[in-house]
Design brief:
2 domains, two-stranded parallel sheet, 327 residues, globular, TIM Barrel, single chain, Arc Repressor Mutant, subunit A
Length: 327
């Protein structure tokens, strides 16, 4: 039976894209680009345009659900439905309603990627109770380092965030996978990680995901640490910790209608390498590079290098790359 290409995305959904943690993940994007409570130095989407804590219906909940329902009918392989994308998803005051309605449509698990800045609010914790996996970020237990890395809204306080995580764990029955993002020279000292470990022991996550700056960051000064350094920090954090590695599975049974549109839709959401595009689309890397060249010539795609790797980004997403390049 013919179905629509699984790469054609709706207004509020994208993918499925290969995730290093969630397999093939259908992204649900409910916040306009870079409306966030943080302005993280490592963010792959660039600088925060609107640093905000206001919760409201940023996107129409019924339209989001219509996109998700269409995606569930057309996409062949989805491991997770994931709230992520362009801004902090818990800013959407109907995220709890959306999760509950998704549960009526499918048994595919729901994940929420969040910076965790609003988890100290009881209403936000309640909104996430029906998710299967919540992946909050906690990079440090030190207020000064927190300010350097996240550059959060001036009312955001690291102690409130930590207490919110602890309170959430008390009632949440799903999985908490805590992300620890390491930035070289900022939060990579063993003594810093030991202090963080004491806090994590209070939060009691099911997993700890140790990560570093693998995609072009908001600030060029944000550099990754080596695998050896990650291993050293992993040993400090303990047995629940895993180093996040690149996704290696190949896409399953994916059709190829309108390849240029398909590729453009994928990279419009995040910087991505040609190798990951090949895995996502099940297209030969040579064909991917030819498509990228055409999109670049049309001025739609830009290329940046980070740690010796080429990433493709939608033109105009931010000012990190300059001018269309070939390659």
């Amino acid at each position: 039976m013919q179905t629509e290409s699984p790469r054609k995305t709706g207004r509020y959904t994208y993918g499925p894209v290969p995730s290093r943690r969630l397999g093939f993940s259908l992204g649900i994007d409910i916040i306009p680009l870079k409306n966030c409570s943080y302005d993280c130095v490592y963010c792959q989407l660039g600088k925060t345009k609107n640093k905000v804590l206001l919760r409201k219906e940023y996107t129409p909940a019924q339209d989001v659900l219509a996109d998700i329902e269409k995606a569930l009918k057309n996409y062949m392989h989805i491991d997770f439905l994931t709230f992520s994308g362009s801004g902090e998803p818990t800013l959407h005051k109907k995220i709890g309603y959306l999760i509950r309605e998704i549960k009526k449509l499918t048994t595919i698990p729901v994940a929420v990627l969040t910076n965790g800045s609003l988890l100290h609010l009881p209403e936000v914790r309640d909104d996430l109770m029906n998710a299967d996996v919540v992946i909050p970020t906690l990079c440090t237990a030190d207020e000064d380092v927190f300010r350097v890395i996240h550059r959060g809204h001036n009312t955001v306080d690291i102690r409130n965030i930590i207490n919110g995580y602890i309170d959430f764990r008390k009632d949440f029955k799903g999985q908490i996978w805590l992300e620890v993002m390491i930035v070289r020279g900022v939060n990579d000292k063993p003594e810093q990680i030991k202090r963080l470990k004491k806090v994590i022991e209070q939060i009691k996550p099911d997993r700890i995901h140790l990560n570093t700056v693998v995609r072009p960051p908001s600030e060029s000064s944000a550099h990754p640490v080596s695998h050896e350094k990650l291993q050293e920090l992993k040993d400090i954090l303990g047995s629940k910790t895993e180093i996040v590695v690149d996704f290696s599975e190949t896409a399953k049974e994916i059709q190829n209608e309108d390849t240029l549109e398909m590729i453009l839709a994928i990279i419009s959401r995040r910087p991505i390498t040609a190798d990951d595009l090949a895995k996502t689309t099940n297209l030969p890397k040579k064909e991917i590079l030819e498509c990228i060249k055409k999109l670049s010539q049309k001025g739609k795609v830009m290329i940046s290098e980070h740690e010796g790797r080429k990433f493709y980004t939608i033109r105009g997403i931010d000012d990190r790359t300059k001018g269309p390049q070939q390659g």
